[in-house]
Design goal:
Blueprint: H1 12-24, E1 38-40, E2 43-47, E3 54-55, H2 64-75, H3 81-84, H4 89-92, H5 98-121
Antiparallel strand pairs: 1-2, 2-3
Amino acid sequence: MKIRFVVPTADIVNEERDRFLTQAMGGCWHDRGSGNPVTMFTLQGHICSKCGLFFSTATDYSTPEDFLRLYEWAKNDPGLQAFVATFRARDFMNEKRGPEKRKQFADGLYTLLSARGKDEENV
């Protein structure tokens, strides 16, 4: 079995999307503050200047690890069930289709939630 890793793209559009989705889920989009790295338990990272937690990488919903949190959150939100139902869960971890399906899901969720936010602002 071949194992393939998805390398984060650092795409500015993905960063905006991931920041928005993290905050929509009630999480902190960690800020490096001074930018000086620290080492904890042999991991090098940063202390978030907003919440005080240690982090080594920014959240990236194109990776299976971070995507799973996003998927579980959306799946358990009654207002998002119709959106989630348009995807097959097994496709997200598929070696060939997984990266593109995770991107489609995250992009679609970002579009849906940001449109809802704009609609609420205009009320």
